[in-house]
Amino acid sequence: MADVARLAGVSSQTVSRVSNGSTGVVEETRQRVLAAMRELGYRPNSAARALKAGEFRTLGVILFTLSTTGNVRTLEAITESAAEEGYAITLLPVAVPTQTGVHGAFTRLGELAVDGIIVIMEVHLLDTATISLPPHIQVVVADSDAGKRYSVVDTDQSEGARMAVRHLIDLGHDTVWHLAGPEGSFAAQRRTDAWQAVLEDAGRAVPAVVRGDWSADSGYRAGLLLADRPDCTAVFAANDQMALGLLRALHERGRRVPQDVSVVGFDDIAEAADFIPPLTTVHQDFAEVGRRCVEGVLKQIRNQAAEQGTTLVPTRLILRASTAPPRRS
């Protein structure tokens, strides 16, 4: 810093103000200081600045897997929103979803010096019914049922599923089969509960749940079973990847979509409009989930106070060509 000050002909305090982006520096002086920084290859010592300011401008993110569309897109949105606020992201995957694993991740992130933590909590922990997080830490949880004790952000999974099932019933289908996500997933359970509730409220039969693991391959295997059922005229798939496999299975077994079977997915992935036929699905606004996660944890950091409650980001039904009224013989 002293070398920059000498080359630019200013004080070290002026260099510090320019480095920190402070106002009150004449533009000509600021440009002279920046030119000196470039010439000398000077870069501010972020660790020293963090110690002085009492903040590290870094957010920690804990998650259990990067193999699902929801997690990847949520993480992408968190990263972009944090960058817009001038924060970097430190990502810490937890191999096994246990309370011990979560606490270990918090300890590690504490050592790495982060200002707040976002936990993408898409599955139940294996060793406890509810998550317990270390006290006195600014934290927001995405996709969880922990809203009574922590700040939670999630898409409105239940309303999205209700819209999908109502759409199929309104088309005239007697009932709707469900290709569900894996047991233990918060999102899968909410979508399954909503599917069942809509059918029961409408006085319709509730078929046995057919379960997959979010992958297209699991959707294909489930689709082979459903394709052999002549009474299956409508399927609500818990995500678009499983719907893709389902469409393949129906095609191979000669069941036309939507003439013989209507299909609705969930997520609205970028490729959904290019499925054959283009997939009717429930759109999740992952960008808004990420933005609200970052907004929530930064609010806690600035106020030095934890918050509770769940914020739901609305979903919407995207109508395409994979649904139609059932054929009547």
Descriptive terms for the model:
329 residues; alpha/beta; six-stranded parallel sheet; six-stranded mixed sheet; 11 helices; 12 strands; 42% helix; elongated
Uncertain stretches of 5 or more adjacent residues: none
C-alpha termini separation? 83 Å
Q: How many strands in all?
A: 12
Rg to the nearest angstrom? Answer: 25 Å
Helix percent reads 40-55%
What would you call the shape? elongated
Report the portion of residues in β strands. Answer: 15-25%
Q: With helices defined by DSSP (H or I, 4 residues minimum), what is the helix count?
A: 11
Keywords: DNA-binding, Transcription, Transcription regulation
Domain HTH lacI-type: 1-53
Pfam family, one: Peripla_BP_3
GO molecular function, one term: DNA binding
Structure description:
The N and C termini lie far apart (83 Å). It contains eleven helices and twelve strands. Strand 6, helix 8 and strand 7 (210-211) form a beta-alpha-beta unit. The mean pLDDT is 90. By secondary structure, the protein is of the alpha/beta class. Strands 2-1-3-4-5-11 form a six-stranded parallel beta sheet, with helices on both faces. Strands 7-6-8-9-10-12 form a six-stranded mixed beta sheet, sandwiched between helices.
